[in-house]
Give the backbone structure.
Amino acid sequence: MKKGMAIMMCGLLMLSGSIYAQAGETEEKKGEAMKKKQWSLVWSDEFSGTEIDRSKWNFDIGNWIVDENGNGVAPGWGNNEKEYYTDSKENAYTKDGKLILKAIKEQTTDQFGTYDYTSAKVKTKGLFSHKYGRYEIMAKLPSGKGIWPALWMLPEEDKYGTWAASGEIDIMESWGSKPNLVAGTIHYGEGWPNNKYTGKDYEFKDGTTTEDWHTYALEWEPGELRWYVDGEHYQTQNKWYSKGTGNAANFSYPAPFDQNFYLIMNLAVGGWFDGDPDASTVFPKQMEIDYVRVFDLKNGKYKTPTEPAVEPAVLPADAKQPLSDGNYIYDAAFEQPITDVDSGDDAFSRDYWNFVHLPDFGGQGTISVDQDLAKVTVTNPGNQLYSLQLIQNLSLAEGGTYKVSFDAKSDSARNIMVKTGAGAERGWVKYSNEEVFALTEELKSYSYTFTMGNETDFLSRLEFNLGGNGTSPVWIGNVRVEDITGESLNENASKPVLSNGNHVYNGTFDQGNMDRLTYWNLHTEGAKANASVEENTREARLDIKNGGKTPDAIQFSQKGLQLVKGNEYTLTLKTRAAKPRTIELNVTNQDGSIHYSQPKTIDLTTSMEEKTIVFTMTEESDLEAQLLLNAGGSKEDVYLDDVVLLKTKDGNVDQHPLKNGDFTAGLAPWSPYIHFDASAVVAAENGEAKIKVENEGNEPWSVLLEQGNMKLSGNATYEVSFKAKSSKSREMELTIENAAYTRFLSEKLALTEEMQTYTYEFFMPADETAALKFLMGKAVGSPIEKHEIVIDDVVLKVKQ
């Protein structure tokens, strides 16, 4: 199901399938369906009661995704849906042994708005969830433009992160405008917007449609999902991944589809999937479910998952092939003409570069070549990142892993977004994440990697999205896309600090290869031991057969830690033993000859307890240090989990990362941004920033003053202060955020005609490059008459 937003978890999918098959199916067919697997019923609802069984089903209510405090996060369930879900007996009820979900054209209102349709969405969350098995639903679905029935599943717990990192399984969903088709899909990857999906359509072959009774089934085993319609198997999925925020690697396969999921059935109106209803759509519409059945294998012997094979990517002969140097990008020096494309021109160059500017979204600009670099001059950035784009088509093979690299700069701090994906013919599917890069005045190299999880695409697109981020020009050059499929990971290489501040990779033992020990090493000398990870607890276990004579006879280590002279570090981990014993912890250089922390003997009990070591790096900086756990000298097994090494005091931190806060040097390095829907002038006069606003636009960020590329230190508390006033009383917003728009501080403050001093504190969880932004666009009470805002004496400092 194509989601419009990330927030997660609210798509519409579907449960399906049929062991017992539709009415009228022969016993012979049923027998054939049962031959492959022997299933045992573990949960069902035949809807034979006079009312919906509330011990099995509860309801989603409303039209909005809301947070834990009841605040609206996203309308339309994140999918642009138009219905308001109720638990009314008009919208959901049982009749003649069937569950009826009915969509009605009628207005209803809540605290967030007014809606033109009501419908129903039932789910088993908190009542029933299951892992693996066969899920079968017999249903009769409505058709009509803008009607979106779905049978689907979501995780009972978001074990791996927000939607879709924790997964979603669509057993069946259908387009109301295409009643001859249904679809089965999985959603996975990272949290939105870096989510992925794969799936396949099924077309009815016997002249029937979704309006007839059919059974939709999913068979789910470790590492494999199979979809069926009326007993006919039409697709298998066994390649996916999950990656959490701050992870060094993907969660170990078969995550995220290795946890309990609950069932959902709903009838949506409108949304991205089939668009909105039109004049041909006659209401009411109803979806009928005869039964829902969940089975386990009788013998409990599910498949053993197999790591998806990494094979060289192979392109057909008629695809656009890489150049002799391995680059999939042609004309890296921009020697060929660049095709100019606007909203009315679809004459894309299939081999060389295209400059896309979309007036419908406000994008205006020009492109030229400057010393082998493409220079994009931005006249109007538009209101979307894709309002201005530099694009080249390329062929990507299913299963291939690719590295994208390029050089870029601007004449001031600004962001660009780069991604690799499909065009309109494949629904703009993303093949890579949407990578955001913070450019500076210095030409620097940037890169990202991704694996092509979709079918081979001859017309993939490498997109540099240059809109929506101010009028600063962008220079781009030396663009390369290379196939790196099968290149081995150097687990002992120097490891940049993770985004959550942790220097240890895979300290939770649930990432990387299926053994979950990626980045860790076990070395024995005069001893015998094995390392493994417990399936249920995800704890690392040192299975000791012979402990040797000394603690260092068994060493469990991680190499490549980056330690900086003068910084204080804190190492924490949870650990226990089969029986009470001791272990030794230490942080050293690569060969163990220099100790950065003194060896510390740790007493272990049979209970998991947190242990801590604090040390200051007094030696020269070492980007290849190692963490050592010595477990020799005893035969008792050792368990550990949640290994974290954080910088807790920065001996090299920039105490005042913001520059020219008194504006005595003009605006540099500050950057103003005026969106096309606003009108304002930003200048530095007499040691103050003055923003003359004639029209504040439609968004808070329509009028903006920011200072970017500030290096902020992790595990530090900062204080920001400034003076400000406005000739008209109004609200202004202050944020401090990174290139991915993660906010570390967000404050709305009231400006008056009197100059006031504002002071705020915030904590940085990890090292970041961030920007301080004053948002002076649309606010409470807008539109505001012409007014002038004055800002002065901006200070950002580490709080002592």
